[in-house]
Amino acid sequence: MNKTVELDMPIFPKVRYSGWHLDEIEPSLAEVKERHYINDQAFGIEVNGQATAYQHVPDALTAQGVRVMSMLKAQALCPELLSQYVGQVIPATTDRLVAQNFHYFNTGIFVYIPDDTQVDDVLQLALNHVATQGQDMMARIVIYVGRRVKLSIFQQMHTLGEVKSKASVVIEIIAATSAQVTYANVDAFSDVTTAYINRQALVTEHATVNWENASFNDGNVITQLESHLRAEGATSHAEVIALSSKKQVQGIMTTVENSGRHSVGHIFQRGVILNRSKLVFNGIGRIIKGAKGADAQQESRVLMLSRRARGDANPLLLIDENDVTAGHAASVGQIDENQMYYLMSRGISKKIARKLVIRGFMGEVLAKMPTKFAQQLIIDEIERKLQDENETS
Amino acid sequence: MTTLKIVNLHVSVEGKEILKGLNLTVRTGEFHAIMGPNGTGKSTLSQTIMGHPAYEVTSGHIYMDDQDLAELSVDARARAGLFLAMQYPSEIQGVTNAEFMRAAINARRPEDDPINVMDFINKLDEKREFLSMSEEMAERYLNEGFSGGEKKRNEVLQMMMIEPKIAILDEIDSGLDIDALKVVSRGVNEMRSDDFGTLMITHYQRLLTYIVPDFVHVMMDGRIVKTGGAELAQKLESEGYAGLRNELGIDAHLTDEDANSYFVEG
C-alpha cells in the first residue's frame, strides 16, 4: 500500500475510527455465484465479491449503447470508456482511503447510459461483501448518466459470510447536462463487516442528483455522501436515514458543495439510535465564491431511544458568497409522545407503536424509495434491529 | 352491557386543578353529549378517560364495569373497549392508514390469529364507502396531508373498523362543513346499537340535530352542573352558557365571556 500512506486519513468529526484500520485492506478474490438480492428479469446486476451473480439489460437498452456490467468485465471490454470516468468525481489523491481504493479496487460495477436514452425501469445494483475468508472487499462503482437521461437507481449492499473483515466501497456518479438521477441505496452490511463507504456525484448544468440513503448496517461504518454542484442550476437533495443498534458506530458525513450559480443543495437527515450504539450526522453545506443565487439548506434530527445511546447532529455552513440563501436546523431528542399516545389509544401495544413511530420518523425517505422491495427491505431492517434491541437490553 | 362510570373525578394538569369532582355514567346503548364553554375541562375529561400521561388523577375513579382504569395503560383501555376520536389526530408518515387500522384490529386478537387480509379489505371498503372516502385513502400515510375534514372522517372510520363499546368523540364536528358533518353523523348513527355507547363533546348544538343524544350534560368549572334531554341543548343555543350559569348561581368565569362568543374555539 506504498502509494497511499503519505496521504492523510479523511476527517470525520466526532468519530474515532483509527482503531478500525481501514487503511490496511487486503483485497479479496472470494466470490459467491448465487444471486441473493435481485429478482429475476429485473434490469440490473448483482456482484458478490468478484463474481457476477446476476446481470440483465433489456435488449432495447443494449442496442442504444447502455452498459451495466461488473468492473472486471468493464476493464476487459471497454477500458477506454471506463478510464474516462474513474477518479473523475473523487480525485485519487483526495485522501488515503480514496487513494487506496483507486489503486487497489478489484471488483465493482460500471454503468454507462448514453445521452437521451429512455430508461423506464429502475436500475438495480447489488454489491455484496463476501466475508468467507477474512480478506476484504475493495470495490468501486462508476456510473455515467448521459444528457437529458432520467434514471432511478436502487443500490444495496449486504454481507455474505461470517468472517470478520473490511469493505471499502467508492461510488462515483456523473450526471451530464440536464440528467435527472435518483440514487436510492440501502447499506445493510452485517456486524462482521467494518466499512468505509464514499458516494459522490458530479452534477453539471441543470442536472439533478437526489440521494435517498439508508444506512442500516450492523457493523462499524463511516459513510461519506457528497454532491458537487458544479454548474448553473445543478440540484441535489441528499436525504439520509440511519438506524444504529447494539454497540456499533455509524458516522455519516453528508456534504453539498455549491459552486454553480443558482445551484440548489438540500441535506435532510433522520437517525435513530438504540442500545449502546453511536450515530453521528455531520452535515456540511459549502458555497464557493461566485455561486450567486445558490441555495444551501440542511436539517438533521436524531432520536435517542436508550440512555446509553450516543448521538450527534452537527450542521456546518461554509459560505463564501453574499448573494445566497442558506439555513440549518439540528436536534437530538426523544420519541414523539403524541404519536405514541395516538397509536396506543387504538389498542396498539407500546412495542408495536414504537416501531411504527420510528418508521414514521424516517417516513419521508422511506416514501421516496423507488421500489416496493426497497421500502419493504427498510421496514424489515427496522423490525429486525428493534427485535435485536429487545434481546440485548 | 358495558358501563363507563366516573366517580368524583379530580384531575390536574401541570399542578392546576381542571376537573373538580365530576360524576358521569355512560352505558352501552346510550348517546350522551357534553356541552360547555371553552376552558371548562371537556377535553381534559376525554383525555383523562383515555389515559393521556399529562393528566393526573388526584382523586376519584373511572371504571369500565368492575375494572378501575387507573390500573390500565392507554392501549389496554382501548382493548377493554374504549375509543377516543381525537380533536387533533397525529400525523404519521411512513405508516399507511390501512396498515395502522389492521394493527389496531390485530391488537385485539390472539397473536397467532390475525384478521384475514380479504376480510379486512372488504370491511374497510364497506366502511370507507359509507363515509364517502376515496379508495386511495387506505394507502395514504396516516393523517398525513389530510384536511381537517378528512381527519375527522378518518377518526370515525377507525371507530367503525374497531367497533369499540364506548366511544368518546372530542369535537368531532369542529372544522367540518355541513356536508362533511352529515357524513360523519351518519357514521356515528350507524353505530347505534345495544352494544355501543358514546360520549360526544361539542360546542355546537348543530351536531346534536344530526346525532340526537339521549342525555345532554352541561359542564362548567370542572363539573357537570346540569343534565337533561336533547331539549337542553336547544335551550343553551338560545340562552347561552352565561344564562345557565346565572340561573344556577355558579361562580365561574367563562373564558370567552368578554368577547361574548362562547361558540368560537379560542
From TrEMBL, chain A:
* UniProt cross-references to InterPro entries, sorted A to Z: Fe-S_cluster_assembly_SufBD (IPR055346), SUF_FeS_clus_asmbl_SufBD_core (IPR000825), SUF_FeS_clus_asmbl_SufBD_sf (IPR037284), SUF_FeS_clus_asmbl_SufD (IPR011542), SufBD_N (IPR045595)
SUF system FeS cluster assembly SufBD core domain location is 133-361
Q: Which residues form the SUF system FeS cluster assembly SufBD N-terminal domain?
A: 47-125
What's an example Gene Ontology biological process for this entry?
iron-sulfur cluster assembly
Q: Which residues form a coiled coil?
A: none
Q: Where are the transmembrane segments?
A: none
* Similarity remark: Belongs to the iron-sulfur cluster assembly SufBD family.
Provide the protein name: FeS assembly protein SufD
Organism, by scientific name, is: Leuconostoc carnosum (strain JB16)
TrEMBL record, chain B:
Keyword list, A-Z: ATP-binding, Nucleotide-binding
Which GO molecular function annotations are given, in alphabetical order?
ATP binding; ATP hydrolysis activity
Q: Which CDD domains match?
A: ABC_FeS_Assembly
Question: Which superkingdom?
Answer: Bacteria
- Note the InterPro entries from the entry: AAA+_ATPase (IPR003593), ABC_transporter-like_ATP-bd (IPR003439), ABC_transporter-like_CS (IPR017871), FeS-cluster_ATPase_SufC (IPR010230), P-loop_NTPase (IPR027417)
**Annotated ranges, domain ABC transporter:** 4-246
* Family to which this protein belongs: Belongs to the ABC transporter superfamily. Ycf16 family.
The protein's name: Fe-S cluster assembly ABC-type transport system, ATPase component
The organism named in the record is: Leuconostoc carnosum (strain JB16)
